[in-house]
Structures are given as structure tokens and as C-alpha cells.
Amino acid sequence: MGSVSLKIGDGTARFKTSTMCSSALNILMILSVITTNLFALYAFTSSPNLIQTEEQLHRQPHRSFSLISEQVSLILREIDKSQKKLAQIEKQLLGYESFDLSKPNIAKELKLFLTSHKLPLGRDSKTGLTEMVSSVGHSCEKSSDLLSRYMNYNVFGNCQDDSSLAQKLILKGCEPLPRRRCFAKSVSSKVKFLHPFPVSLWKPVSNKTVNWNGYSCKSFDCLNGRKLNRDCFHCFDLVNGYENQRFVKSRSKNDFLVDEVLQLGKDGIRIGFDIGIGSGSGSFAAVMAERNVTVITSTLNVDAPFNEFIAARGLFPLYLSLDHRFPFYDNVFDLIRASSNIAEDVGEKQEKFEFLMFDIDRILRAGGLFWLDNLYCGNEEKKVGLTRLIERFGYRKLKWVVGEKIESGKSHVFLSAVLQKPVRV
């Protein structure tokens, strides 16, 4: 059985720096502890029923012990009530259990999915739990109208063509999305236009393998005329563009070659992870596949069908945003590559980049390689900040190059590096 989150939003919370709410909660907790202790001190020092002489205690031992027992029970009840109240306040501040299922615009399927379900065998003896709640990002509550549209469908019918709506929810922090009981739309006769592996790696992908609804372009030729991001300009042209030369021929000192990086790994590179959001068309995974290295490419369909294109090449796409915890176990990858846009995709706050870096560190094995490929730093100040953060992880610098590129008449700083994760005991 798959794992089940036992709280709405568990594991998917968007972490924030200290706020007024969190400070208020801390103050409330401190005041509660102080009040409880003062109450206990008052109870045991001021009560005339408890302050008795040794002679009175010998005369009325049962009554004395009874009074003490009552006071202790009262204190314990007050402490229990305070703890429960604090737990409820914490839930409200964090956004747990914040879905108002009584709203008239909440879809019936969403209500059914979010409603807690009693465990079939009653209370679990190991965890003490009696019910479970399906996992869904708690930020979804902020977009409940969009989420209801996403969950409004005919059960056992065909799903609406709402992939753009789903991605919009993900980009708003509504991740993971709730599962649905409808059949996803398929592209008819798609298999006729697919090439066998490994020929598929560099063969042009047919337009008929993609459902173009929701995109302004309706063909790969149209997409090749646009610069979607720094990593994708003519990136769908596998024959006449630069894609078939990437990672095997360099255009600047910041471009590392695949064979050089693999040599640094000393033949220990077997599986890898390519991280980005709509950053490329899977060419890194294709080049690595030719060298018997399996690479998973993380991407979203930002303005283009990246996932379908990568899959049509016979490669493995992973539809996932960078705010989501990577669905892999600890210490499993030999190589992780981060594309140039990764710092921008994460956001301006250093804490958000730290969350990403720690998750990368978690899934990369000791001795594995972390490849920063033309990481966009913007300016020297941001480069210094990113450098300091990276150095805090204690990785060994196998290659490290900082260079400048001119874009739109402005100079921008880029960092390329190959780092080796240390062994930590």
C-alpha cells in the first residue's frame, strides 16, 4: 500500500520565516507555562486546607491526602486543557484542517476525498490513530474555487481537458493535488508515431503525439521560434538545432562536457536526476542514455508540452515542481544536475533555496556528484550568497568556474561547478 498522509497538508506545507502569528504562538505557550506554574505554587502555598501542622496531619491523614489529590487533579486538568488549546491554535496557524467543506461551491468529489475515514479495524494499536485523511496540499485552501473546478467531473467518466488548471494550482502551491475518479484524455493512435529506442533519442517528435489544447502554439515548429527560457531556445529541434551538440561540445568556459563529468565520477555514475521547471527537452538524459546512465528529468509543462516530448524520446519525465519534496528515498542518486534557471524557479528568498539544497543533499549518495550547470546568479552579490550557502554543505569542489554573459545588453553572472558530496558520520 502507498503511504497516506494523516493530516491535510502534512509534508506539503510551504515553510515561511518567523511571522507575527508564530511569535504570538510562542508567547502564548510561554504565558501558559508560567500561569500553570503560578497556579500550582498558589495552590500549594496559599490554600488553608493544605497548610496544616504535623499534628493536624496525624489527626486527619485521609482528609489531607484527599485535598492534595484534588488539587493535583485540578492542576493536571488545567495543563491538559492548555495543551489541547495550544494544539488547536497551532493547527489553525499552520493551515491544517482549514478547508470549510460546508461551502456551497465545494465539489462533491472534493468533499468525499477530504472527509476523514475511520480505520476499518478501529484504533491502531501502534500509532493510536482511529482515522485517516487523504493527502492534499494545505495551500489548496487558498484556491478552493479552482480546486472545486478541478474536482468537478463525472465519476467513471472522462476527465475534462484541464491540465492547464492543474498546473495553475500546482504553481499556486496546491501540491499534491487530490486524486480523481475519471479517465484522463489520451491521444489517439499515438503509438504509430513513436520511434523505437534508442533511435527515438534524436528523431524528430511528431506533433500528433501531443494534445495541444491549452497551448498558444499548436506544433513544435511554432515552439522552436520562441525562446521559452535560458535553457530552451530551439530546444525541440533535435536535428538542425543545438540540442544534439549540448553537453558534448562547449560554447563557453562555463559549459562542462558530459564525458569530463563522468570521468570525475570514476565509473560510479549509473543513475541521475535532472532538475528544472520546463528548462529543457530531455537532451541531457538522452546524452547520458547513450552512455548507459539512466536519468530522470523533472519538469513542468510551462508554455510547452515538455513532459510529452521527453516521453516520446523514450526518456523518463517527472511532473513535479521544485517546492515539492522529491519522491525518492535517501542516498539513491549517483549524479544530480541543476539547470541554469533553478535559482530563479525557487525564488528570491535564500531559505527556499536552502530547502531545495537540503532535499538534493538527501537523495544524493555520499561520493555522488552535484552538477551546477550554468547556474544563473544575476549579479556578484547573489553569486556570493549562493556560494556561501553551497560551501556550508562541505562538498568537495572538483570543478568551479564563474563567468559572465551578456543578455539584453546587460552583464549577468553564471556559476558552473561539479561538487562531490562528503561522507558524513
Strand and helix layout:
Blueprint: H1 20-46, H2 54-59, H3 61-94, H4 108-114, E1 117-118, E2 131-132, H5 144-150, H6 163-171, H7 220-224, E3 227-229, E4 232-233, H8 258-264, E5 271-275, H9 283-289, E6 294-299, H10 306-312, E7 316-319, E8 333-338, H11 342-346, H12 350-363, E9 364-378, H13 380-391, E10 396-407, E11 410-420
Parallel strand pairs: 5-6, 5-8, 6-7, 8-9
Antiparallel strand pairs: 1-2, 3-4, 9-11, 10-11
Mean pLDDT: 80
Residue windows where pLDDT falls under 50 for at least 5 positions? 1-22
Strand content: 15-25%
Order of helices and strands: HHHHEEHHHEEHEHEHEEHHEHEE
| Helix run count | 13
**Biggest sheet: strand arrangement:** 7-6-5-8-9-11-10
The biggest beta sheet reads: 7 strands, mixed
Subcellular location: Endomembrane system; Membrane
Membrane topology: Single-pass membrane protein; Single-pass type II membrane protein
GO molecular function: methyltransferase activity
Family: Belongs to the methyltransferase superfamily.
